[in-house]
């Protein structure tokens, strides 16, 4: 036990000045808040639904597309090069596979992207252009999260959704990483090798808190979108006819009020015409 502890300390050799330690410290509270979002609680309770997971995949697709494009474009930047591990970490292709599994070949036309996801992606593109040294904060938040709690969530998701194989769950699999723990150690040491001025370091730390905040907002937005759909379906079944909802990227349209307005106009016009005729 004692030897194990020593080996671990020697392998990591972390100090209070290390970016990996500072980033973990400043995002500790945000991590707790992220874990306690309704979506993450559904995962942890083994109650994640197919609807939740499908919607999450759509957002993850947009997020990783932005993140990985910006990492690729800045791969030679001194703040990015040490933590650039596309072969081990890139998620975009696995998410595409999962989307195709759940939505079919024309998944690109079907995906739904809530506003919070668009805001997150906008920020990723902005820092990719203006402050590439901040990308480490986002890469850390997503990839180390996927290699930590994400590994447990993948197994839970499979059971919750009753999936027989790993199909539809490629997102959680990292075939290029044989030991997530060892890889995380390597990643942390690479983070710590990035040379940053005091101002840049503070910027990265602030950006990491922001990255968690973006994720929390994405989860909350997804949940809201789902509860609107569920409420509409529920209310619809309580009345005579179910309410049809159209889902278009970033928003939802409820067709029944529109239909009611057109019908109302039609009735009003008919009444007026009948009045004129009678007169
Ligand atoms: C159900 C939700 C979650 C659970 C159960 C969970 C659990 C965990 C666990 C057990 C660790 C390992 C802690 C350690 O090694 O000291 C971890 C680390 C981490 N998690 Fe989560 N997590 C969840 C959600 C999230 C989310 C939503 C994010 C970000 C979007 C995230 C980002 C991270 C990061 C960046 C780390 C690495 C911390 C470090 O070693 O510096 N986690 N998580």
UniProtKB/TrEMBL annotation:
Subcellular location(s) per record: Endoplasmic reticulum
GO biological process: heme catabolic process; heme oxidation; response to oxidative stress
Keywords on record: Endoplasmic reticulum, Heme, Iron, Membrane, Metal-binding, Oxidoreductase, Transmembrane, Transmembrane helix
Organism name: Lates calcarifer (Barramundi)
Molecular function terms from GO: heme binding; heme oxygenase (decyclizing) activity; metal ion binding
Gene3D superfamilies in UniProt: Heme oxygenase-like (1.20.910.10)
SUPFAM superfamilies associated with the record: Heme oxygenase-like (SSF48613)
Top class in the EC scheme: oxidoreductase
KW Lipoprotein (keyword) present: no
Listed InterPro entries: Haem_Oase, Haem_Oase-like, Haem_Oase-like_multi-hlx, Haem_oxygenase_CS
Protein's recorded name: Heme oxygenase
PANTHER family: HEME OXYGENASE, HEME OXYGENASE 1
EC number: 1.14.14.18
């Amino acid at each position: 036990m004692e030897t194990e502890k020593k080996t671990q300390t020697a392998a990591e050799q972390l100090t209070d000045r290390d970016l990996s330690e500072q980033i973990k410290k400043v995002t500790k509270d945000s991590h707790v808040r992220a874990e306690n979002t309704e979506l993450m609680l559904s995962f942890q309770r083994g109650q994640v639904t197919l609807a939740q997971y499908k919607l999450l995949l759509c957002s993850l697709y947009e997020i990783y597309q932005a993140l990985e494009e910006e990492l690729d474009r800045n791969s030679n930047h001194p703040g990015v090069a040490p933590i650039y591990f596309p072969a081990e970490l890139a998620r975009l292709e696995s998410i595409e596979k999962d989307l195709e599994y759940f939505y079919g070949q024309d998944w690109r036309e079907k995906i739904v992207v809530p506003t919070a996801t668009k805001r997150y992606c906008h920020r990723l593109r902005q820092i990719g252009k203006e402050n590439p040294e901040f990308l480490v904060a986002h890469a850390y938040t997503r990839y180390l999260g996927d290699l930590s709690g994400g590994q447990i969530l993948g197994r839970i998701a499979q059971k919750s959704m009753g999936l027989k194989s790993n199909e539809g769950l490629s997102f959680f699999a990292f075939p290029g990483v044989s030991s997530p723990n060892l890889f995380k150690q390597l990643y942390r040491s690479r983070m710590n090798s990035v040379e940053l001025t005091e101002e840049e370091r503070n910027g990265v730390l602030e950006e990491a808190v922001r990255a968690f905040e973006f994720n929390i907002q994405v989860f909350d937005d997804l949940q809201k979108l789902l509860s609107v759909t569920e409420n509409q379906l529920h209310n619809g079944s309580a009345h005579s006819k179910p309410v049809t909802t159209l889902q278009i990227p970033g928003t939802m349209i409820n067709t029944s009020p529109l239909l009611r307005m057109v019908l109302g106009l039609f009735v009003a016009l008919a009444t007026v015409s009948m009045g004129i005729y009678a007169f």
